[in-house]
């Protein structure tokens, strides 16, 4: 299963005290393939640094570079599918370029994707994803 994870979901999974830490553990165990782009990595780094500090951010970004189930994608086309928060388009572009099955997100801005017939992108929330990886 190949996915893109929105930053708000990823940040919740990092701490071992989170009920969603299984997502982080499943990533480490190679239970799914994660697609990332340079833009996504930069956002992950910025938000993790703000929340957990620079050392945690650096360690996590380094880890992503070492995992064989993390795939770096270079989207060559900007689809501009989300108007409300254009910054979220990087996740759509990465998902399309990498042929992701799902974008895992809790962000309502992605609901517009359900109305599109093309390109077809499917979103799931964190609880649905937890069920898939168990």
Please outline the helices and strands.
Elements: E1 2-5, H1 7-13, H2 21-29, E2 33-36, H3 38-52, H4 54-66, E3 70-72, H5 89-98, E4 102-104, E5 123-124, H6 126-133
Care to count the β-strands?
Answer: 5
Shape: globular
Overall pLDDT = 94
Radius of gyration: 14 Å
* Largest sheet report: 5 strands, parallel
> CATH homologous superfamily, by name?
5'-nuclease
Could you please say which CATH topology applies here? Rossmann fold
List the strand order in the largest sheet.
3-2-1-4-5
The N- to C-terminal Cα distance equals 13 Å
- Helix/sheet category: alpha/beta
Q: Which percent bin holds the helix content?
A: 40-55%
CATH architecture field: 3-Layer(aba) Sandwich
Looking at this protein, list some descriptive labels:
5 strands; Rossmann fold; 5-stranded parallel sheet; alpha/beta; 134 residues; single chain
Descriptive account of the structure:
- The structure is a single chain.
- By secondary structure, the chain is an alpha/beta fold.
- The chain has a single domain (about 1-134), classed as Rossmann fold.
- Helices cover about 45% and strands about 10% of the residues.
- It has helices at about 5-15, 20-30, 40-50, 55-65, 90-100, 125-134, and strands at about 1-5, 35, 70, 100-105, 125.
- It has a 5-stranded parallel sheet.
- Helix 3 packs antiparallel against helix 4 (about 55-65).
- The longest helix has 15 residues, at about 40-50.
- It is globular and about 40 Å long.
- It starts with a strand and ends with a helix.
